UniProtKB/TrEMBL annotation:
Oligomer status and interactors: The complex comprises the extracytoplasmic solute receptor protein and the two transmembrane proteins.
Membrane topology category: Multi-pass membrane protein
UniProt GO BP: C4-dicarboxylate transport
Pfam families registered for this protein in UniProt: DctQ
Protein name, as recorded: TRAP transporter small permease protein
A GO term, aspect molecular function: transmembrane transporter activity
Family classification: Belongs to the TRAP transporter small permease family.
InterPro entries hit by this protein: DctQ (IPR055348), TRAP_DctQ (IPR007387)
Functional summary from the UniProt entry: Part of the tripartite ATP-independent periplasmic (TRAP) transport system.
UniProt keywords, alphabetically: Cell inner membrane, Cell membrane, Membrane, Transmembrane, Transmembrane helix, Transport
Tripartite ATP-independent periplasmic transporters DctQ component domain sequence ranges: 23-154
Length: 172
């Protein structure tokens, strides 16, 4: 089960990387197209959507690997009991916020689908299509936060803290 979760977070990171590579390909195609006198229709739209997808797909992978900024100047000096409660409160709050965001991301996709919204670029693309990766990325972040919340409740070290401790050991 643990390796399945690791693969899930890694897949989210790869999806983020793929979207960054897609941005590069679209921009290079646009540059080459200008040299030969043609344009790539809706290249700006596709690049913007890929940037949003890369950002949201990268959230779960970054959270799991301890890449999000945490101010630990005070809490690193705390004993185990206060640190447990601090981690628990922050993860519960973060999970609640992630649930809220995930619900409304999927609601946004549903509304765009129902109202048949399309982009205003050269190519009329249904807006729900580029919104799905954003909602999937938020869902992955939700799972990552829930995973660490359960770990803290079970008195285990959350994944982001394990990586944080590894980084602290490397600095010494």
């Amino acid at each position: 089960m643990n390796s399945l979760r690791e693969k899930f977070y890694l897949a989210s990171g790869y999806a983020s990387g793929f979207c960054i590579a897609l941005i590069m390909v679209v921009i290079l195609a646009q540059i080459v197209g200008r040299l030969f006198g043609f344009i790539i229709p809706s290249a700006e739209d596709v690049s913007g959507w890929a940037l949003a997808a890369a950002t949201f797909f990268g959230l779960a992978y970054t959270f799991h690997n301890g890449g999000h900024i945490r101010v630990t100047l005070v809490i690193q000096k705390w004993s185990a009991r206060p640190r447990f409660w601090q981690e628990l409160v922050v993860l519960v709050f973060g999970f609640g916020l992630a649930c809220y965001m995930t619900f409304y991301c999927w609601h946004m996709v549903w509304e765009s689908y129902i109202f048949e919204e399309v982009s205003h670029g050269y190519i009329p693309i249904p807006i729900w299509i580029p919104q799905v990766p954003v909602a999937l990325g938020m869902t992955a972040l939700n799972i990552a936060i829930l995973d660490d919340l359960v770990a803290v409740i079970r008195k285990r070290t959350p994944s982001y803290q394990q990586h944080e401790d590894e980084l602290n050991l490397e600095e010494v």
